[in-house]
Write a structure and sequence with these properties.
It comes from Sodaliphilus pleomorphus. This protein is an alpha/beta fold and 646 residues long. The protein is built from 20 helices and 18 strands. The chain is globular.
Length: 646
Amino acid sequence: MISIQDLKVEFSSQLLFDNVSFVINKKDKIALVGKNGAGKSTMLKIIAGLQSPSSGTVSKSTDLTIGYLPQQMTLVDKYTVKEEVMKAFDHIKELDSQIAKMNQELAERTDYDSADYQDLIDRLTHKNDLRAMYQAENYEAEIEKTLLGLGFDRTDFDRPTSEFSGGWRMRIEIAKLLLKRPDVLLLDEPTNHLDIESIQWLENFLKLHANSLLLVSHDRAFIDNVTNRTIEISCGKIYDYNVNYSHFVQLREQRVEQQLRAYENQQKMIHDTQEFIEKFRYKPTKAVQVQSRIKQLAKIVPIEVDEVDTSRLRLKFPPAPRSGDYPVIAEDVSKTYGEHNVFHDVTFTIKRGEKVAFVGKNGAGKSTLVKCIMGEIPFEGNLKIGHNVKIGYFAQNQAQLLDGELTVFDTIDQVAVGDIRTRINDILGAFMFGGPASEKKVKVLSGGEKSRLAMIRLLLQPVNLLIMDEPTNHLDMRTKDILKDAIKDFNGTVIVVSHDRDFLDGLVEKVYEFGGGHVKEHLGGIYDFLAQKNMESLHELEKKEQLQQGIHAAKNVEQEVKQSKLNYQEQKEINKKIKQAEKRVSELEQHVNDLESQINCIEQQLAQGGEVDPDIYNRHSQLNAELEQTMTQWEDAGEELEKIKQ
């Protein structure tokens, strides 16, 4: 479908990619990973045709359609939500226009026996068939289903897009993109503005309906659930693995270990050779050997070791001063904007040392309650902050509030006080802003770098209550892991507002769910909460939505089903078909696993470097082709099984 050949990209004499080649095939769902600044977003822009490489080519199949979602976009607010999303079907309007033009041409022509006239009839028939197919699909129902899945209410459909925040408008763009059903989806951080329920809906949509996908995301659980192939950008090169991200991490560790061993062996050989040259340089009897060793050194191609944890970033919050036993006590807290009640009668107590999560749909009041705790907005009810509580606050938009004209050093120098001012350069170096990087202006930093800089400001004074509103947006996976470990080690109290399941897993022991104007407490971690809420699959989300729309209708349907039970013989025949279908699915699934194991073995062999049999590449290609075919058969068998069960 898309072939990237010998791609090279340079910015201001800095090499981003060099001689990069790979192919995006039909049904590929690829995670594009790498450190912040490695060039992931640039790669998406080049494939989308929005940016040109320094050299190399991007070849695409004829009539291939590509849908691209950038991290940031400029939105025009002239329409309602539904009208804006309807633009996804502009091609249907174009089709109607073409049909009308052909019908007009047929009415005016009289050369009924000509080949051109017959060709016009054939083309018109094809267009009408295509239009009938779109009509049968009922795209208005698809619009409604997609918007509901992304968290919109039906009452939102006719609201102007200008009334929504940037995050919700980004959801509108996601909806348009998904409804267009392009051949290839290019998504750059699509989960940054989604809540947990919407992320799970998007996961299932991409798994079931996306054709091919190239995804940049720092949400590990999301890419693990969606993708089946991982491409890493490292040191200007790419490493391509036909596995999901978690499996890739294991293989990457093995690859780096092999590279390190090869590097150490090469360094030892270079050292020994140089010692020999120095030792016998002036001995005539060794002249030939010395010259041979000098030539040998000149021919050596240095072994590169991929980027690994070589930076000095070690995040550690200062020890928390002791606070009272209950840092936050809420009693019947309510917040209303005009006629809209965000939440009411909120009552809970957070104990000293507890780490809790605020979760729920966007707009349910998570950030609003945080602002109430911070005393930034008025509210009704009682909200008590405990004795000697010192709050450290990381706001959702804190990185954007930084002054873009200041340098990194000046940004920290403004807030540093006392002895800490003498250690600013050391602190910046520990956060990978050492040397020339400290003189960069904030406006040229990436989103992840800005978030890291905002985090430094939070660390400059000791606190005992950390409140972090979406702290992981724009952070790469390694930095997120470091932040998570630092919060785990922090001996104070923590409130985290986040939709990142992997980040919250193992971090919090209590979850507060926001929704419907209420705040409900759930004991246990994030996956305990999700299990309680039955939100592990799209089926459960749809079931929940159906129940909310009409529980009485559901009960009536259930009663009808009970009254019309199948007789024994019919049930026996269905059970037989189910067993046959399940056996077929199981056999194909096992075949997929076997093929993936064979491919993994070959890729590990290729990753080791050195000479390999050229036939191994043909075998690799054959196995991938067979895997693609088997995956299609497996998906078809799964769909057939579901039809039988219905």
